[in-house]
Design a protein that fits this description.
The chain is α/β, with parallel strands linked by helices. The protein is 44% helix and 17% strand. The chain has 2 domains: 57 residues; 145 residues, Photosystem II 12 kDa extrinsic protein (DNA polymerase, domain 1), CATH 1.10.150.320.
């Protein structure tokens, strides 16, 4: 009888230990799972926030504006800005600017250089003012001559004896000192009287 009682006690004790062990194991598993999923949710949230912020940050572009503006210079604006945004940053147009010939709502999506013409320049032959690629906003003179104050790199390179390096030198020079007369182009390194003689009837200011 005592042996049977002892066996019952042992069996009951074993069952209790097993049950307690299972409960403890399930408790720990629940806590671990909870922490794991909570961490994942946080990471996913952070990653989503990072992607959203990266996608929402606009690409900045550099715009060099000169000519008939109060403060010529290089300004950074978000891609997709309009020309008027840069004009405002540069202090606005001067009184001489050809306001009616400037496309102020032109959208800028890349690094560009912008030349704002004056009324006198328009009267002297420019048919209109526009934005073009990375060089100028002034069209070629209606006379068919290439304006050395606003002609693009490609246009200048069409002149006899003017290669890419010389065309770039012309543009660099005029950004500092606009040409007042065609003869001034001889102040540019690489252009002497001989070369000027070949292009003088093809250019204007």
């Amino acid at each position: 009888m005592k042996t049977k009682t002892r066996n019952v006690i042992y069996t009951a004790a074993f069952v209790i230990v097993v049950v307690i062990g299972l409960i403890y194991k399930l408790f720990l598993s629940g806590r671990t799972d909870g922490i794991y999923f909570s961490s994942n949710e946080s990471d996913a949230s952070d990653a989503s926030l990072f992607v959203t912020e990266s996608e929402s940050r606009p690409l900045m572009i550099s715009v060099y504006i000169c000519g008939a503006v109060e403060e010529p210079g290089v300004y950074e604006v978000p891609g997709g800005s309009i020309l008027n945004d840069v004009v405002v940053m540069s202090g606005g147009l001067t009184e001489e600017a050809a306001r009616e010939n400037i496309d102020l709502v032109k959208i800028l999506n890349e690094n560009v250089s912008v030349y704002i013409p004056t009324e006198d320049e328009i009267d002297e032959g420019y048919s209109s003012a526009i934005t073009i690629g990375a060089v100028t906003v002034v069209q070629e003179s209606s006379s068919g001559l290439i304006n050395i104050n606003s002609g693009s790199l490609q246009e200048l390179m069409t002149l006899p004896g003017i290669g890419e390096a010389t065309a770039e030198a012309i543009i660099s020079y005029r950004e500092q000192t606009p040409f007042e007369k065609t003869e001034d182009i001889m102040n540019v390194s690489g252009i002497g009287e001989s070369k000027y003689g070949k292009i003088k009837d093809l250019i204007c200011v």
